[in-house]
Amino acid sequence: RQRNAKVEDLWSLTNFFGFATETFVLAANILDRFLALMKVKPKHLSCIGVCCFQLAARVVEEECNIPSAHEIIRISQCKCTVSDLKRMEKIISEKLHFEFKATTALTFLHLYHTIVLCHTSERKEVLNLDKLEAQLKACNCRLVFSKAKPSVLALCLLTLEVQTLKSVELFEILLRVQKHSKISDSDLLYWRELVSKCLADYSSPECCKPDHKKLVWIVSRRTAQNLQNSYYSVPELPTIPE
């Protein structure tokens, strides 16, 4: 449960900084790989999550767009210091042998999506990639899907979407993709049922979704007062003659 909440925080951070879906998916992947190797205390999970986010951003994003460690800590409201983050980065890096890049479900989703569009006579916009990516993000927020093969998870999302479109041609293309990828019917059916349930739960109004609004700069009352006083203390500029 705490892991799922932390991944949702990573989703919020990704949206706040305007980063790519790939950054979020890779951050969740790094987090899951680390948690599979190490037992961590709940109090350290926040620092670990922020560190995974920073590592993923370095892999995916342009260096000039990556915020400083101090800024990420402030925005995420993580109760750790820059020194804590550096120490955690060293631990994660060593445990993962500095292998941060990974073939994720997003990799296969883009690949399969391209294959389908290349072989279909349907309109190109019929399979909305943004929608599929959003559904993948929802799945990434559930620990159970960290155990699914990336290729299977990607194909599940596509087959469920094609079912809603009721396109025989698209379904036949995905059958060929499944055969070529050597994905068994039993695997596909098992995970597709879980994905379907996850997406149904996530679309319900009772489901708690990542709260992007809570990610704001934290300004103390004293700082706010000083900012207000400094605003009023600025002298009026003299009138500029014509």
From TrEMBL:
GO CC annotations on file: cytoplasm
Localization terms from the record: Cytoplasm
Keywords associated with the record: Cell cycle, Cell division, Cyclin, Cytoplasm, Membrane, Mitosis, Transmembrane, Transmembrane helix
One of the protein's GO biological processes: cell division
CDD domains in UniProt: CYCLIN_CCNG2
Domain of life: Eukaryota
Residue ranges crossing the lipid bilayer per the database entry: 12-31
InterPro entries membership: Cyclin (IPR039361), Cyclin-like_dom (IPR013763), Cyclin-like_sf (IPR036915), Cyclin_N (IPR006671)
Domain Cyclin-like: 8-94
Family named by the database record: Belongs to the cyclin family. Cyclin G subfamily.
Function, as annotated: May play a role in growth regulation and in negative regulation of cell cycle progression.
Cross-referenced PANTHER family: CYCLINS
UniProt-recorded name of the protein: Cyclin-G2
Organism (species): Charadrius vociferus (Killdeer)
